[in-house]
């Protein structure tokens, strides 16, 4: 009898050890799985398919789009573009083809006889286009009779950039702050600037306004904005006024309700229905009053996008200067020709986050294209206008 009890005790002990071992192995597996998911979540990957999780650097897709027509056709096998010309534009953009647009001669003439004492340069600063760098060049590197007086920290303390007549010649973040709203777009600036400058100069006067901006490759800019929010930065304090009104929560729902969107995965970033990163350059340059502002009722989204893109193109043509992030040399020459102002040195772009550091899988790359469809068309249009204006200088 004691022998039977001993045998049963040994069996029970073995079973308990095996059970405990199984529990430990299971817990270890769960911890490992959670860690792997969290790790991929931080980098924008939440797929369980290894071939998709691994992803590729952006230049992989850029090169394959050019060299592999089958792969390009596969990526472009989508029907969710809302603008009728997006597919054709994507082929030009992704396969690095050339596209020429017809411009009137007046669109190519940029020497407007700028008078620094009476006229105003209005800098429309689009996020993640190296716009801060260009702003630094404007306040620090121009040859001026009365240079800007800039404090050590121009980001929080605007420069004193008044002329001999005590007028403001440059309306930008570094010279006036954000009187029309954080990163005010064309619509906000157009509605606000007269009153803002009257208040800053403490008088009313007639002014000529010359809007300028910097544009960047749409893929690079979109990814850079995601990374910016991933790092915990944001522009949630933007007013986004249109016809004097801010958008309602029905028309524009915030992507996050916490203090920031830190750690947001790329999939989550794209899935936000009202993400302001979507076609940001087009939206910020367009006159939004022509496309029903941010109101969702009263206009079809397809019609909104068509109108918005045409408005952005029109406003871009009317700018005597806009620059390109990837061509600061010609940007410098065009600015100097337009305003008769010279830079003391060559312009340099700050070290941007290299595009090769962004890893996406095929599904993510394909998905991203629908969120930059208007910006791709605007960028192609801008590049050709930019090059035709550059040729006019010679």
Strands, helices and their partners?
Elements: H1 2-42, H2 50-54, E1 56-57, H3 58-67, H4 69-75, H5 86-94, H6 105-108, E2 120-124, H7 131-140, E3 170-171, H8 173-176, H9 186-201, E4 209-215, H10 218-230, H11 266-271, H12 280-285, H13 301-318, E5 321-324, H14 328-339, E6 359-360, H15 362-368, H16 373-392
Helix pairs in contact: 5-16, 13-16
What is this entry, summarized?
It is built from 16 helices and six strands. The chain is mainly alpha-helical and 394 residues long.
Q: What is the string of helix and strand elements?
A: HHEHHHHEHEHHEHHHHEHEHH
Main structural class: mainly alpha
Do you know the CATH architecture of the largest domain?
Answer: 3-Layer(aba) Sandwich
Shape: globular
Mean pLDDT reading:
88
Uncertain spans: 3-10, 34-53
Structure commentary:
This protein is mainly alpha-helical and 394 residues long. The chain folds into 2 domains: 1-42; 86-392, Rossmann fold (3-Layer(aba) Sandwich). Helices cover 48% and strands 6% of the residues. The chain has 16 helices and 6 strands. It has helices spanning 2-42, 50-54, 58-67, 69-75, 86-94, 105-108, 131-140, 173-176, 186-201, 218-230, 266-271, 280-285, 301-318, 328-339, 362-368, 373-392, and strands at 56-57, 120-124, 170-171, 209-215, 321-324, 359-360. Strands 3-2-4-5 form a 4-stranded parallel beta sheet, sandwiched between helices. A two-stranded antiparallel sheet has the order 1-6. Strand 2 (120-124), helix 7 (131-140) and strand 3 (170-171) form a beta-alpha-beta unit. Helix 5 (86-94) packs across helix 16 (373-392). The protein is globular, with a radius of gyration of 27 Å. It starts with a helix and ends with a helix. Residues 3-10 and 34-53 have low confidence and may be disordered. This is Heparan-sulfate 6-O-sulfotransferase. Pfam families: Sulfotransfer_2 (PF03567). Its EC number is 2.8.2.-. The chain crosses the membrane at residues 21-38. 6-O-sulfation enzyme which catalyzes the transfer of sulfate from 3'-phosphoadenosine 5'-phosphosulfate (PAPS) to position 6 of the N-sulfoglucosamine residue (GlcNS) of heparan sulfate.
């Amino acid at each position: 009898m004691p022998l039977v009890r001993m045998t049963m005790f040994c069996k029970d002990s073995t079973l308990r050890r095996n059970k405990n071992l199984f529990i430990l192995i299971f817990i270890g597996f769960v911890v490992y799985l959670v860690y792997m998911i969290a790790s991929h979540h931080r980098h924008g990957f939440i797929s369980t398919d290894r071939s998709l999780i691994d992803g590729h650097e952006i230049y992989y897709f850029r090169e394959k789009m050019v060299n592999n027509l089958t792969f390009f056709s596969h990526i472009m096998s989508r029907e969710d573009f809302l603008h009728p010309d997006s597919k054709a534009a994507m082929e030009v953009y992704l396969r690095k083809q050339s596209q020429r647009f017809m411009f009137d001669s007046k669109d190519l003439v940029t020497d407007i006889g700028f008078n620094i004492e009476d006229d105003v340069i209005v800098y429309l600063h689009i996020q993640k286009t190296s716009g801060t760098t260009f702003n630094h060049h404007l306040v620090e590197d121009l040859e001026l009779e009365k240079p800007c007086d800039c404090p050590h920290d121009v980001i929080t303390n605007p420069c004193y950039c008044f002329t001999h007549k005590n007028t403001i010649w440059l309306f930008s973040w570094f010279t006036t702050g954000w009187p029309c709203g954080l990163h005010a777009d064309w619509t906000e600036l157009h509605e606000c600037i007269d009153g803002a400058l009257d208040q800053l100069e403490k008088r009313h006067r007639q002014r000529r306004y010359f809007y300028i901006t910097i544009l960047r490759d749409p893929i690079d800019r979109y990814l850079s904005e995601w990374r910016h929010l991933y790092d915990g930065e944001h522009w949630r304090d933007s007013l986004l006024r249109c016809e004097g009104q801010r958008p309602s929560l029905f028309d524009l729902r915030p992507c996050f309700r916490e203090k920031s969107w830190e750690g947001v995965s790329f999939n989550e970033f794209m899935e936000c229905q009202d993400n302001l990163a979507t076609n940001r350059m087009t939206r910020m340059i367009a006159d939004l009053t022509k496309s029903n502002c941010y109101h969702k009722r009263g206009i079809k989204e397809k019609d909104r996008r068509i109108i918005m893109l045409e408005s952005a193109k029109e406003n871009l043509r009317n700018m005597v200067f806009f620059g390109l992030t990837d061509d600061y040399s010609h940007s410098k020459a065009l600015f100097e020709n337009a305003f008769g102002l010279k830079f003391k040195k060559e312009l340099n772009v700050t070290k941007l986050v290299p595009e090769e550091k962004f890893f996406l899988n095929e599904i993510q790359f394909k998905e991203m294209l629908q969120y930059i469809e208007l910006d791709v068309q605007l960028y192609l249009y801008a590049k050709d206008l930019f090059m035709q204006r550059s040729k006019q200088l010679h």
